[in-house]
């Protein structure tokens, strides 16, 4: 199938398909005699896998590893689990950081008069943080 068909079936746009191919996430597409990329059902499955991994927040480096593990039927599930657990820990850390940012911004917003006066605790706080 051509890149447009692969994009439609996998839900990954053509530009991203070319990018994934260029960085080695998916194998280089075969080419027709006229030079157009041609994708197999296997390629589309990999693209769908990559899309799902992206929606779960995995970085491309991790996705490359996951694709490699997925293709390797003799892999240990422990290798896959350790990647997932590490990713969970990173996401939980980010959640804590985001909650702290929300708390700070709520506090600053609450203390900002939001009127015509130039004094603004939000800007004052941003100025102080170095």
Keywords for this entry:
66% helix; 130 residues; Multidrug-efflux Transporter Regulator, Chain: A, Domain 2; two-stranded antiparallel ribbon; 6 helices; mainly alpha
Q: How would you characterize the overall build of this protein?
A:
The chain has 130 residues and is mainly alpha-helical. The protein has two domains: 1-75, Multidrug-efflux Transporter Regulator, Chain: A, Domain 2; 76-130. Helix content is 66%, strand content 3%. It has helices spanning 3-10, 14-22, 41-55, 60-71, 77-110, 121-128; strands at 30-31, 37-38. Strands 1-2 form a two-stranded antiparallel ribbon. A hairpin with a 5-residue loop joins strand 1 and strand 2. Helix 1 packs across helix 3 (41-55). The longest helix has 34 residues, at 77-110. The radius of gyration is 23 Å and the shape is elongated.
- Strand runs, count: 2
The termini sit apart by 54 Å
- Major sheet strand order: 1-2
Bin the strand percentage: under 5%
| Low-confidence segments | none
Radius of gyration over all CA atoms, rounded: 23 Å
Mean of residue pLDDT values: 94
Q: How many helices in DSSP terms?
A: 6
Shape: elongated
Largest sheet: 2 strands, antiparallel
List the helices and strands and how they pair.
Blueprint lengths: L2 H8 L3 H9 L7 E2 L5 E2 L2 H15 L4 H12 L5 H34 L10 H8 L2
Antiparallel strand pairs: 1-2
Helix pairs in contact: 1-3
Structure in a nutshell:
By secondary structure, the protein is mostly helical. It has helices spanning 3-10, 14-22, 41-55, 60-71, 77-110, 121-128; strands spanning 30-31, 37-38.
């Amino acid at each position: 199938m051509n890149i447009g068909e692969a994009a439609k079936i996998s839900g990954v746009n053509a530009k991203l398909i070319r990018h994934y191919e260029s960085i080695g996430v998916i194998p280089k597409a075969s080419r027709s005699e006229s030079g157009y990329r041609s994708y197999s059902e296997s390629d589309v499955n990999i693209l769908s896998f990559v899309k799902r991994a992206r929606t779960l927040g995995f970085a491309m480096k991790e996705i490359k590893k996951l694709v490699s593990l997925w293709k390797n039927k003799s892999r240990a599930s422990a290798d896959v689990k350790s990647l997932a657990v590490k990713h969970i820990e990173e996401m939980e850390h980010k959640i804590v950081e985001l909650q702290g940012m929300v708390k700070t911004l709520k506090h600053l917003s609450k203390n900002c008069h939001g009127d015509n006066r130039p004094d603004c605790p939000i800007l004052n706080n941003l100025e102080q943080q170095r």
